[in-house]
Design a protein that fits this description.
Helix content: 55-70%
Strand content: under 5%
Structural class: mainly alpha
Strand order of the largest sheet: 1-2
Order of helices and strands: EEHHHHHHHHH
Largest sheet: 2 strands, antiparallel
Shape: globular
Number of helices: 9
Length: about 160
Amino acid sequence: MGRIGPYRYPDITLEEARLILLVNLTYQGASLDPPYLAKRLGHVNEKSGAFKRKLQSLRRWGLINRKNKITPLGLRLASAKTNEEWSKVAVDAFNNVLLFSQLITMLNDEGALSSSIFKKHLAILTRAKTEEIEKKWKHIWRVFLSTLESMEYSPKKSEASNSR
């Protein structure tokens, strides 16, 4: 499951989460039926590790609750039709992930966003061991950056920041 140091994070992007919610809403409504959903998503059963990570990610984004009911935020994500609606939902979901909300505060102080700056601040914030950072940072960066793009966040990219 998505965890680095003391922080937890979703393993899937909001786009992936939206597709899962749409599959469920189409066939099951606002309550998730894990055995049924697992099969619809191509998993052997609801006990597979990959499926459990997906459900946990939906919870970490704030899209489902512990009783596997789709939250109002999850319904907003599934029904977002415009870029503006999508962006608002992305901001709310992003703020549900403590790791992301704390990282963005640190990164805003940098004035530029690059993978090397992200990795540096991830290490500072989480105080995780170097091996753990090396193993996980690219995946976290992908989910983080995908969400920023959904939020229509416009980082300043400079050559100097990318060469650090």
